[in-house]
Amino acid sequence: MTSSATTRAEKFVVRFPNGMRGEVAQAAGLSHRSMNAEIIARLQHSLSNWPATLPHGETAIPDGNEEAYLLERFRRLPAGKQQALLALLD
């Protein structure tokens, strides 16, 4: 990317979970790319395959089942995350 193209590129700050930055750096090294190029390549791959992974003609949660879905997801959370979520709702 040229210097002028770099200054025109959209910028977005990403917060990685602990350890992920190292994993991205390692993957970038193995691919002989910068970390930025590695992230962009993986996002482009993911987004280009996105429609194939979605259910066609239906929502991810069938209408009328939202409450049951949320309750099931809540029950699968560790106790600490359940408490944190409840605190947010108060």
Ends apart, CA distance between termini: 48 Å
Spans of 5+ residues with little confidence (pLDDT < 50)?
none
Beta-strand level of the residues, as a percent range? under 5%
Rounded radius of gyration (Å) = 19 Å
Q: What is the level 1 CATH name of the largest domain?
A: Mainly Alpha
Count every helix, treating DSSP H or I runs of 4 or more residues as helices.
6
Number of domains: 2
CATH architecture of the largest domain: Orthogonal Bundle
Largest sheet: none
CATH topology (level 3) name of the largest domain? Arc Repressor Mutant
Give structural attributes.
single chain, 90 residues, mainly alpha, Arc Repressor Mutant, 2 domains, Arc_rbn_hlx_hlx, Arc_DNA-bd_dom, Alginate biosynthesis transcriptional activator, Ribbon_hlx_hlx
What does this structure look like?
With 90 residues, the protein is mostly helical. The chain folds into two domains: 1-54, Arc Repressor Mutant (Orthogonal Bundle); 58-90, no CATH class. It has helices at residues 3-8, 20-31, 35-48, 50-53, 66-76, 79-89. Helix 2 crosses helix 3. The longest helix is centred in the middle third of the chain and has 14 residues, at 35-48. The radius of gyration is 19 Å and the shape is extended. The mean pLDDT is 84. Residues 9-48 form the Arc-like DNA binding domain. It holds the Pfam family Arc. This is Alginate biosynthesis transcriptional activator.
